[in-house]
TrEMBL record:
The gene is metC1. InterPro entries: Cys/Met-Metab_PyrdxlP-dep_enz (IPR000277), Cys_met_metab_PP (IPR054542), PyrdxlP-dep_Trfase (IPR015424), PyrdxlP-dep_Trfase_major (IPR015421), PyrdxlP-dep_Trfase_small (IPR015422). It is an enzyme of class 4 (lyase). One of its GO terms (biological process) is transsulfuration. This is cysteine-S-conjugate beta-lyase. NCBIfam families: PRK08064.1 (NF005976). It comes from Halobacillus halophilus (strain ATCC 35676 / DSM 2266 / JCM 20832 / KCTC 3685 / LMG 17431 / NBRC 102448 / NCIMB 2269) (Sporosarcina halophila). Its cofactor is pyridoxal 5'-phosphate. Gene3D superfamilies: Aspartate Aminotransferase, domain 1, Type I PLP-dependent aspartate aminotransferase-like (Major domain).
Length: 399
């Protein structure tokens, strides 16, 4: 069988299509060496070797870049020092006078970049409800150059039709960028659905252990890859060799981790849905979730992230103070479950009015399900909800 026909789970382990390069030729080491070298000796006066300086290219980073390109089915993969570095670098493909159309519930850091940085370079933006293709289509301007999609979105897990948006974009000569952080290549393949660039905060599921900050970008075609590689080298926000190694190791277990976490997420969702104190559960795997049919069509899994709404800030506070297993922190996609409070964490950069428009209410909590036993997590959630019930009885709120 040819390596390009291997299933994703196999490719997570064996990386790039020419996975022979993973076996270090001099020693046979099964792990890629960490090439801690900023510069590379040139054998010849006239011709440069494959590497000259590690900002422009590093052999450890190269394996990672080839791996993600292979997993996303793109022409070129690039590794950056953070998800935001990857996203910012992709936006640098734009020029003054251009306009971008953006999913209204993008990640808080992306929102900050678009609203507070791009304007300085005279790049205009419009936020639209991208779950509505008509609204998206109407918002396209003659100078729109990029449509920026995040699906499922953060934190309410709204679903955008990637293929629908990519078709609109193509018809208007725009590029489609998709932030694929929540789904990873295991569950969603935006390039196959027509996107031009797929972006990742590899800090999350891809590395999976809450240890490194990293970003990845994959371009559909070589020409766009060349342009983004030029930006990567010019702007210089590359991923270091050590972190590249760690991310390669993280990707190897992505299949096993994300599948188990997603199974547990579904169990937790079922439990939360039954609970009288939980006003709403957001999870794209739920058949009554508004985006469920589109998500099922374009993705092969519902993922490990869910959000749920309690009555108010007091209820959320009581829950967080009582919960034992999940860490209470920003971030997601790790072996340990991570509970976060979007209003003051992931979306702190967003003004309250904007948050309210996006359903990021004071009672909303987001849970990234890790690899703990689901039974233990459910028991923990149950006892935390009992604490919420006690506080509400104390203040005389009828349940
Ligand atoms: C975390 C995150 C980012 C930003 O990535 P960093 O690695 O923190 O810079 C972008 N998009 C999404 C969806 C994220 O969750």
């Amino acid at each position: 069988m040819r390596p390009e026909n291997d299933q994703l789970e196999t490719r997570f382990i064996h990386g790039s299509a020419n996975n022979r390069s993973h076996h270090e030729p001099a020693t046979g080491a099964v792990n890629v060496p960490i090439y801690l070298s900023s510069t590379f000796h040139q054998e010849s006066f006239d011709t440069m070797g494959p590497y000259d300086y590690s900002r422009s290219g590093n052999p450890t980073r190269q394996v990672l870049e080839d791996t993600i390109a292979n997993l996303e089915g793109g022409a070129r993969g690039l590794a950056f020092s953070s998800g935001m570095a990857a996203i910012s670098s992709a936006f640098m493909l734009l020029s003054a006078g251009d306009h971008v159309l953006v999913s209204k519930d993008v990640y808080g850091g992306t929102f900050r970049l678009i609203t507070e940085m791009l304007g300085k370079y005279n790049i205009d933006h419009t936020f639209v409800n991208m779950t509505d293709l008509n609204e998206t289509s109407r918002a396209i301007q003659s100078n729109t150059k990029v449509i920026y999609v995040e699906t499922p979105s953060n934190p309410c897990l709204n679903i955008t039709d990637i293929e629908g948006v990519a078709k609109l974009a193509k018809a208007h000569g725009c590029l489609t960028f998709v932030d694929n952080t929540f789904m990873t290549p295991l569950y969603q393949n935006p390039l196959e659905l027509g996107a031009d660039i797929v972006l990742h905060s590899a800090t999350k599921f891809l590395s999976g252990h809450s240890d490194i900050i990293a970003g990845l970008a994959v371009t559909k075609n070589e020409e766009l890859g060349e342009r983004l590689a030029f930006i990567q080298n010019s702007f210089g926000s590359i991923l270091g060799a050590q972190d590249s190694y760690q991310l390669i190791q993280g990707i190897k277990t992505l299949g096993a981790r994300l599948k188990q976490s997603s199974d547990s997420a579904l169990k937790i969702v079922s439990h939360l849905q039954e609970h009288s104190l939980v006003e709403e559960v957001y999870y794209p795997g739920l058949s009554h979730h508004a985006g469920h049919p589109i998500h099922r069509r374009q993705s092969t899994g519902a993922g490990a992230l869910l959000s749920f709404r309690l009555a108010d800030k007091e209820a959320a506070k009581a829950f967080v103070e009582q919960i034992r297993l999940p860490v209470f922190a920003v971030s997601l996609g790790a072996v340990e479950s991570i509970l976060s409070y979007p209003a003051t964490m992931s979306h702190a950069a967003m003004p309250e009015k904007e948050r309210a428009k996006r359903g990021i209410t004071d009672g909303l909590l987001r849970l990234s399900v890790g690899l703990e036993h689901p039974g233990d997590l459910i028991e923990d959630i149950e006892q935390a909800l009992q604490a919420v019930a006690r506080t509400r009885q104390k203040v005389g709120v009828s349940l």
